[in-house]
Amino acid sequence: MTTPAESGSTDPVPDVPEWWIFHGTGQPRPHLDLLTQLPPPPQWRTFGGRPDPTDPPHDETSGRYLGPARTRGFAIPLGPERKDLLDKVNAAIHLRRPLLLVGPPGVGKSSLAHQISRELQLGRVLRWPVTSRSTVREGLYSYDPLTQIHDLNLENARVRLTGDEPPGGDDGRLGSSARSIGRYLTLGPLGTAFLPAHLPRVLLVDDFDLGDFDLSGDLLDLFESGGFDVPELARLAGVAERIEVATDDPGRPVAVERGRVLCSAFPIVVLTCNNDRDLPPAFMRRCIPVRMGLPREEELLAAVAGHFDGNLPTGTRDLVTKFLDAGVHGDQLALDQLLNAVHLVGQLDHDGGPTPEQVDHLAELLWHRLTESPG
Hints:
Layout lengths: L33 H4 L24 H5 L13 H16 L3 E4 L6 H11 L6 E4 L6 H5 E3 L1 H18 L6 H11 L5 E3 L1 H5 L8 E5 L8 H11 L1 E3 L1 H4 L7 E4 L8 E4 L2 E3 L5 E6 L7 H4 L3 E4 L5 H11 L8 H13 L6 H13 L8 H11 L9
Parallel strand pairs: 1-10, 1-11, 2-5, 5-10
Antiparallel strand pairs: 3-4, 6-9, 7-8
Helix pairs in contact: 12-13, 12-14, 13-14, 14-15
């Protein structure tokens, strides 16, 4: 049950700088026409890809990170730290530069990418989760030549048995074989983000600090060139200039021309790091770095309200106070743990609500430090 005093549903704070594109509400702005309101990029950040007019796919994942989309949000005052964060987010959007978010797990780094995509109505977030084995090549595309060879052998055997040759003789057979490569090649989240489009996609490079040392250099080349080559397709340009391939967006293939992908709208890139790591100066000077800490009370209340239909369940404010106190005393906690506690407290919301002892018990049960051993 949610009491009127606990309700957090209110209009977002309207007092934002005029130059901001992203207001930080994380809620759709129905009257925003980003195509006309987003200023053009600097001359040195234009890349020349021919945009596809197709709208981005519907965003079906942000609800898990932010809660259901609403027309009203929980007001978050623009304090100095939040204004500094939103200043840098908007600078990255204007300058078409990657945003490098550094902070402990669970403070909302990945959620920020979903807030940007939902508010600016940029469709599904393209997420590339980085591991110690990740390479830029696998983020751009995957290719399965073994399956292709197997299928070609079966097709050749069928032709020998039936005599059913494709039109055009050898040239026709070669062209048909070249176009069929698209069935075995798929653009990954990184490659899909750089497809030419009228509006930028949001690309989330998660846990960037887990990657190999060379990863930043390889990414820098992509970020500076705004595109990449697919050698497997480029070699076939003479017999099949346009080849349709699958993308990270399910059910949305695209035609790649002469094996080259070149963006027209540089994606909004959000790189997240849980720990500090030394990155090459050449990479750092092309990013906009932001250090994120545990959200303030208003931000925590807004995050909780987002997952509970815009309201604050009974006992939320007490839990948020305890959560913040734990952070002050050095406990490394995550927003997920707060949401878990709020949900369980809601299950006890009867006969006047949960007792202080029950709230304390759930906090002790769920709020283990992220650095301590299990059990």
